[in-house]
Amino acid sequence: MIRITDTEIREDVYRELRQTSPLDGAEIEVTVKDYIVTLKGTVSSTAASLYAVDAARRVEGVHEVINNLEAHPPADARTDAEVAEEVRQALESDGLISEKSIEYTVTNGWVGLGGSVACLCEREEAERTVRDLVGVRGVYNQIAVNA
Questions:
Q1: How many Cα neighbours within 13 Å face the side chain of 82?
Q2: Can you list the domains of the chain with their CATH numbers?
Q3: Distance linking the first and last C-alpha atoms of the chain
Q4: For residue 84, with 0-12 CB atoms within 10 Å meaning exposed, 13-18 middle and 19 or more buried, which class applies?
Q5: Which candidate, 100, 102, 147, places its Cα nearest to that of 123?
Q6: Percentage with pLDDT > 90 across the chain
Q7: Complete edge-to-edge strand list for the sheet that includes strand 27-33
Q8: Taking the model in full, what pTM does it have?
Q9: Which terminal residue of the chain has fewer beta carbons within 10 Å of its beta carbon, N or C?
Q10: Residue 73, SS3 per DSSP
Q11: Model confidence over 12-60: pLDDT tens digits?
Protein backbone atom coordinates (compact mmCIF):
# COMPACT_ATOMS: atom_id res chain seq x y z
CA MET A 1 0.00 0.00 0.00
CA ILE A 2 1.38 3.39 -0.98
CA ARG A 3 1.17 5.98 1.81
CA ILE A 4 0.27 9.51 0.81
CA THR A 5 1.85 12.24 2.90
CA ASP A 6 0.08 15.30 4.29
CA THR A 7 2.28 17.44 2.02
CA GLU A 8 1.17 15.51 -1.08
CA ILE A 9 -2.46 15.82 -0.03
CA ARG A 10 -2.04 19.58 0.47
CA GLU A 11 -0.56 19.97 -3.03
CA ASP A 12 -3.34 17.85 -4.53
CA VAL A 13 -6.03 19.89 -2.75
CA TYR A 14 -4.53 23.14 -4.08
CA ARG A 15 -4.47 21.62 -7.58
CA GLU A 16 -8.11 20.55 -7.28
CA LEU A 17 -9.14 24.00 -6.00
CA ARG A 18 -7.42 25.68 -8.97
CA GLN A 19 -9.40 23.44 -11.36
CA THR A 20 -12.75 24.30 -9.75
CA SER A 21 -13.97 27.31 -11.76
CA PRO A 22 -16.38 28.87 -9.20
CA LEU A 23 -13.34 29.37 -6.96
CA ASP A 24 -11.43 31.67 -9.33
CA GLY A 25 -9.88 34.42 -7.25
CA ALA A 26 -10.76 32.80 -3.94
CA GLU A 27 -8.20 33.21 -1.18
CA ILE A 28 -8.01 29.77 0.40
CA GLU A 29 -5.32 28.47 2.72
CA VAL A 30 -5.02 24.69 2.99
CA THR A 31 -3.47 22.87 5.92
CA VAL A 32 -3.31 19.09 6.37
CA LYS A 33 -2.57 17.16 9.53
CA ASP A 34 -3.09 13.40 9.81
CA TYR A 35 -5.11 13.32 6.56
CA ILE A 36 -7.53 15.99 7.85
CA VAL A 37 -7.77 19.01 5.55
CA THR A 38 -8.60 22.44 6.96
CA LEU A 39 -9.74 25.17 4.56
CA LYS A 40 -9.40 28.77 5.74
CA GLY A 41 -9.90 32.05 3.93
CA THR A 42 -12.57 33.91 2.03
CA VAL A 43 -14.78 33.01 -0.89
CA SER A 44 -17.48 34.94 -2.72
CA SER A 45 -20.48 32.87 -1.62
CA THR A 46 -21.69 29.94 0.42
CA ALA A 47 -21.94 27.98 -2.82
CA ALA A 48 -18.24 28.64 -3.49
CA SER A 49 -17.48 27.38 0.02
CA LEU A 50 -19.33 24.15 -0.74
CA TYR A 51 -17.44 23.78 -4.03
CA ALA A 52 -14.16 24.11 -2.11
CA VAL A 53 -15.17 21.42 0.37
CA ASP A 54 -16.27 19.11 -2.47
CA ALA A 55 -12.96 19.73 -4.27
CA ALA A 56 -10.96 18.82 -1.15
CA ARG A 57 -13.03 15.68 -0.60
CA ARG A 58 -12.23 14.48 -4.13
CA VAL A 59 -8.53 14.24 -3.29
CA GLU A 60 -7.23 10.76 -2.57
CA GLY A 61 -6.17 10.26 1.03
CA VAL A 62 -8.41 12.92 2.56
CA HIS A 63 -10.25 11.55 5.60
CA GLU A 64 -12.06 14.71 6.69
CA VAL A 65 -12.48 18.34 5.63
CA ILE A 66 -12.88 21.16 8.13
CA ASN A 67 -14.51 24.20 6.53
CA ASN A 68 -13.34 27.46 8.11
CA LEU A 69 -14.08 29.50 4.99
CA GLU A 70 -15.93 32.81 5.22
CA ALA A 71 -18.29 33.87 2.47
CA HIS A 72 -18.07 37.55 1.60
CA PRO A 73 -20.24 38.61 -1.31
CA PRO A 74 -18.76 41.17 -3.70
CA ALA A 75 -19.33 44.87 -3.00
CA ASP A 76 -21.73 45.07 -5.94
CA ALA A 77 -23.99 42.38 -4.42
CA ARG A 78 -27.48 42.22 -5.87
CA THR A 79 -30.74 42.93 -4.12
CA ASP A 80 -33.17 40.11 -3.41
CA ALA A 81 -35.45 41.44 -6.17
CA GLU A 82 -32.59 41.32 -8.67
CA VAL A 83 -31.64 37.81 -7.57
CA ALA A 84 -35.27 36.68 -7.82
CA GLU A 85 -35.49 38.00 -11.38
CA GLU A 86 -32.29 36.19 -12.31
CA VAL A 87 -33.60 32.96 -10.71
CA ARG A 88 -36.81 33.28 -12.75
CA GLN A 89 -34.88 33.78 -15.99
CA ALA A 90 -32.48 30.92 -15.24
CA LEU A 91 -35.29 28.47 -14.46
CA GLU A 92 -37.22 29.50 -17.57
CA SER A 93 -34.22 29.07 -19.84
CA ASP A 94 -33.20 25.65 -18.49
CA GLY A 95 -34.68 23.06 -20.84
CA LEU A 96 -34.16 20.18 -18.43
CA ILE A 97 -36.69 21.32 -15.82
CA SER A 98 -40.34 22.29 -15.77
CA GLU A 99 -40.01 25.74 -14.21
CA LYS A 100 -43.78 26.23 -13.88
CA SER A 101 -43.88 23.62 -11.11
CA ILE A 102 -41.08 25.24 -9.12
CA GLU A 103 -41.69 27.97 -6.59
CA TYR A 104 -38.92 30.14 -5.16
CA THR A 105 -38.30 32.89 -2.65
CA VAL A 106 -35.20 34.99 -2.04
CA THR A 107 -34.29 36.29 1.41
CA ASN A 108 -30.94 37.96 2.07
CA GLY A 109 -29.49 36.21 -0.96
CA TRP A 110 -30.69 32.76 0.11
CA VAL A 111 -32.93 31.04 -2.45
CA GLY A 112 -35.67 28.75 -1.18
CA LEU A 113 -36.92 26.30 -3.79
CA GLY A 114 -40.28 24.57 -3.44
CA GLY A 115 -43.00 22.93 -5.48
CA SER A 116 -42.83 19.51 -7.07
CA VAL A 117 -41.20 17.87 -10.07
CA ALA A 118 -41.51 14.52 -11.83
CA CYS A 119 -38.02 13.17 -11.10
CA LEU A 120 -35.00 13.63 -8.87
CA CYS A 121 -32.92 14.84 -11.81
CA GLU A 122 -35.23 17.88 -12.20
CA ARG A 123 -34.91 18.68 -8.49
CA GLU A 124 -31.12 18.53 -8.67
CA GLU A 125 -31.01 20.50 -11.93
CA ALA A 126 -33.13 23.29 -10.42
CA GLU A 127 -30.65 23.67 -7.57
CA ARG A 128 -27.63 23.53 -9.90
CA THR A 129 -29.24 26.16 -12.10
CA VAL A 130 -29.64 28.76 -9.35
CA ARG A 131 -26.82 28.11 -6.88
CA ASP A 132 -24.11 29.77 -9.01
CA LEU A 133 -26.05 32.89 -9.92
CA VAL A 134 -24.49 36.18 -8.88
CA GLY A 135 -25.92 37.25 -5.54
CA VAL A 136 -27.02 33.78 -4.42
CA ARG A 137 -25.54 33.03 -1.01
CA GLY A 138 -27.02 29.55 -0.76
CA VAL A 139 -29.99 27.36 -1.68
CA TYR A 140 -32.60 25.57 0.42
CA ASN A 141 -33.99 22.88 -1.84
CA GLN A 142 -37.42 21.75 -0.63
CA ILE A 143 -38.68 20.58 -4.02
CA ALA A 144 -40.74 17.39 -3.73
CA VAL A 145 -40.35 14.57 -6.21
CA ASN A 146 -43.61 12.99 -7.35
CA ALA A 147 -43.04 9.25 -7.38
A1: 9
A2: 6-71 (3.30.1340.30), 80-145 (3.30.1340.30)
A3: 45
A4: middle
A5: 102
A6: 57
A7: 27-33, 36-43, 64-71
A8: 0.56
A9: N
A10: coil
A11: 999 999 887 677 667 899 999 999 999 999 887 777 888 899 999 999 9
